[in-house]
């Protein structure tokens, strides 16, 4: 077991929570506390009712997620938000969330782990979001696009949607997990021929075609399960806490 404050201090420090700008209103860090020492943790991509209930069923009293409860300020505790928070409090389960701090982390981050799982050698960081520079990573590749897509689908465990706006052979790829379809123009400007991300809007098809960029949409959820699993293992290594991954795919 470990005291909640010790776990939170470790996560805050390891993920540089206070140093990473996120969406306005997004809250990174401890979102709901608990009274008990932490003796088991569940990790999941989303803090939805399903993952909260499964955490309770698993007997864990800490849920670590990538997509937390709070994305605006202030947020009234009514409706489904109230039901989520009430369940956490009634069952004495703490909730910790890390969004962009988890995406960009060089060791535990979704981008870095996905790239490594694809056997890519990361050359540097890519992508600007607000004042934050380097939300993704990039690598040199020498593979036919079809082969690269096959590898992505195997690693992510999901069928990819491919916008074939670029060359049939991948040589420079940018990796930004989640919903980075809006970065296609940045990909073009920075000299990459392929973007690997999770999802994008309808108009990004035309962006890909007109900027001459391949875009691989491998699924928002499917590209963002890596970081939470890495954190689960890190908490075991640090505190001896058992961890469980709650898989609740959205198909998005």
What does this 3D model show about the protein?
- Helices cover 34% and strands 26% of the residues.
- The chain has nine helices and eleven strands.
- The protein has two domains: 96 residues, NIF3 (NGG1p interacting factor 3)-like (Udp-n-acetylmuramoylalanyl-d-glutamate--2,6- Diaminopimelate Ligase, Chain: A, domain 1, 3-Layer(aba) Sandwich); 114 residues, 3-Layer(aba) Sandwich (Udp-n-acetylmuramoylalanyl-d-glutamate--2,6- Diaminopimelate Ligase, Chain: A, domain 1).
- Helix 2 runs parallel beside helix 3.
- The longest helix has 14 residues.
- It is elongated.
Please state how the strands of the largest beta sheet are arranged side by side.
5-6-8-9-10-7
Helical/strand content category: alpha/beta
N-to-C terminal Cα separation, in Å?
36 Å
Oligomer classification:
single chain
Main β-sheet description: 6 strands, mixed
Radius of gyration: 19 Å
Give the amount of beta strand, in percent: 25-35%
Shape: elongated
- According to DSSP, the number of beta strands is 11
| Poorly predicted segments | none
Q: Roughly what percent helix?
A: 25-40%
Mean pLDDT: 97
SSE succession: HEEHEHEHHEEHEEHEHEHE
CATH superfamily of the largest domain: NIF3 (NGG1p interacting factor 3)-like
Number of helices: 9
Summarize the structure.
This protein has 252 residues and is of the alpha/beta class. It folds into 2 domains: 4-99, 3-Layer(aba) Sandwich (Udp-n-acetylmuramoylalanyl-d-glutamate--2,6- Diaminopimelate Ligase, Chain: A, domain 1), CATH 3.40.1390.30; 110-223, 3-Layer(aba) Sandwich (Udp-n-acetylmuramoylalanyl-d-glutamate--2,6- Diaminopimelate Ligase, Chain: A, domain 1), CATH 3.40.1390.30. The chain contains 9 helices and 11 strands.
């Amino acid at each position: 077991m470990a005291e909640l404050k010790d776990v939170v201090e470790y996560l805050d420090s390891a993920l540089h929570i206070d140093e990473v700008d996120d969406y306005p209103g997004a809250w990174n860090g401890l979102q709901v506390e608990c009274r008990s020492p932490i003796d088991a943790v569940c990790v999941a991509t989303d803090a939805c009712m399903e993952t909260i209930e499964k955490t309770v069923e698993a007997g864990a009293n800490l849920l670590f997620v990538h997509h937390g409860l709070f994305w605006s300020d202030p947020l009234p505790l009514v409706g489904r938000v109230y039901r989520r928070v009430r369940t956490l409090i009634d069952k004495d389960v703490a909730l910790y969330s890390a969004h962009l701090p988890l995406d960009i982390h060089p060791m535990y981050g979704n981008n870095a782990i996905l790239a490594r799982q694809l056997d890519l050698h990361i050359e540097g960081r890519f992508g600007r979001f607000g004042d934050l520079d380097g939300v993704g990573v990039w690598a040199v590749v020498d593979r036919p696009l079809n082969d690269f897509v096959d590898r992505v689908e195997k690693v992510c465990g999901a069928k990819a949607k491919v916008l074939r706006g670029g060359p049939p052979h991948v040589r420079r790829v940018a990796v930004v997990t989640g919903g980075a379809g809006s970065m296609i123009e940045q990909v073009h400007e920075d000299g990459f021929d392929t973007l690997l991300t999770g999802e994008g809007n309808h108009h990004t098809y035309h962006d890909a075609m007109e900027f001459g960029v391949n875009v691989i949409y491998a699924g928002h959820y499917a590209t963002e399960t890596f970081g939470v699993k890495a954190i689960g293992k890190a908490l075991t290594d640090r505190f001896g806490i058992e961890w469980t991954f709650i898989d609740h795919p959205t198909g998005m």
